[in-house]
Amino acid sequence: MDRIETQLAIHADPDRVFDEITHPENIPLYAPGIEEAHQRPPQAPQAAGNLLDLVTRSGDRMEGEIVDRQANRSWAVEDENGTVARWSLEEGEDGTLATFVLEGDFDPETERELRSEMRAKIARLVLDLEQAGRS
Fold first, then answer.
1. 108-134 and 14-22 helices cross at what angle (nearest 10)?
2. How buried is residue 61: exposed, middle or buried, by Cβ count under 10 Å (0-12/13-18/19+)?
3. Which of 10, 53, 71, 132 is the most buried (most CB within 10 A)?
4. Are strands 51-56 and 95-104 parallel, antiparallel or unpaired?
């Protein structure tokens, strides 16, 4: 199993960060290779065990499952291929200390692409969270 990890400080309240990353429609904001995500059924409360419909960058459809959801602490989704996207959050001095981990079986080229896309997506997400916190 391969592991891609990034740690970051986000100048935003942990509650705000958690709300943003755990909304299923926001998964494409940080998950490399994912272009769409929807909870099934849409109106169900978000909880571990809930299923997700995911659409990849190449247009493939697959199922995911919320495998961990602890308010303001952790959130994880596993897709049908066994790839897990996991967030861990801690309150920091000036906002939130966050760790994002992507685990799965990746060939070297795919891993490079995922790392690059993950960095770009997370940088945009952090910027959006920090700007929203200033509004």
1. 130
2. exposed
3. 10
4. unpaired
Q: Tell me the two tokens of residue 8.
A: 């970051």
Three-point CA angle 32, 58, 36, nearest 5°: 55
Give me 85's structure tokens.
Answer: 């996207």
Q: How far apart are CA 57 and CA 59, in angstroms?
A: 5
Please answer whether residues 11 and 132 qualify as being in contact, where contact means their C-beta atoms are separated by less than 8 angstroms.
no
Amino acid at 92: G
The C-alpha atoms of residue 39 and residue 9 are separated, in whole angstroms, by 28
Spatial separation of the C-alpha atoms in residues 92 and 106, rounded to whole Å: 32
Q: Give the pLDDT band (50/70/90) at residue 89.
A: very high
Q: Token pair of 100, please? A: 């994002």
Domains of the chain, CATH where assigned: 2-134 (3.30.530.20)
- Residue pair 4/111 in contact (Cβ under 8 Å)? The answer is yes
